[in-house]
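ok so i was messing around last nite and threw this chain in just to see what happens. nothing serious, just curious
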Amino acid sequence: MQTAYIYHPDCLKHDMGMGHPECPQRLITIENELLTTGLLSQLQCYDAPLATMDQLVRVHTPGYIESIRQAAPTAGLIALDADTAMNPFTLNAALRAAGSAVLATNLVLAETVNNAFCAIRPPGHHAESDRAMGFCLFNNVAVGVAHAIEHHHLQRVAILDFDVHHGNGSEEIFHDNPHVMLCSTFQHPFYPYSGANSGSDRMINAPLRRDADGAVFRQAVKDSWLPALNRFKPEMIFVSAGFDAHRDDDMSQVYLSDDDYVWITQQIVSIADQYSQGRVVSVLEGGYELHSLARCVAAHIRVLQGKEI
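result:
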């Protein structure tokens, strides 16, 4: 299967300061892993474009988008919240990150590629329609989903979010949209302290206790995600691909292994093959222990390529 790899060097220039876990080295380490394993040469590589105002305003308020533009500093750092900051290069990086999901959507729906992985930052799934938070400025996956619905006229789109933090922004944006299903696993109680009691027949939340391992995670997916997806029959799948529930990542207290990320990607591909003509767009979210992040992204991509692991 042909897999697109969407990236832009502008995403390396966004830097929230020394010691911040959401750092440029995340993308460098991923690319080094893909080079070392020979995977990068097997991918269809594309530069992420800048998202347009028309694309952003489908999921964010015009006032919020303008506030981010106005906040962009010409030097130094400015804080948007306790965890999220902008430097002079952040705005372009955030626009590239959102634009990557639009390009990936176009490529997959044009059948130029079977699926796509967006190696971008800043991440997006905490960004609400009018609020930056949790390292996120624009909700990259949401921008792609809205583009699939509004521009390509899809009727049923699923977001599958296995980041260790609840995708509160994605839920807020699409809570009342009948065209979107969100399936999310996340540690609870844990930042952003949402999701446990906000589910519905389309917002499928599966909170995990703080010491959950791969068996607990897999059972949660089998019990909650898979029946819901079989009912919904999505025409396209977007993935909020966070790797921070890995047992080596000290950003959380959930203990997933490399094999668990292979397994969940296999489930996603299986659902996509059954209902979505294999159409998957995966967008990087969290993952802060660099070695496990790089390994798991590479494994995730191998499964998207249809390779045996």
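not much to say yet. Residues 160 and 239 are 5 Å apart (CA to CA).
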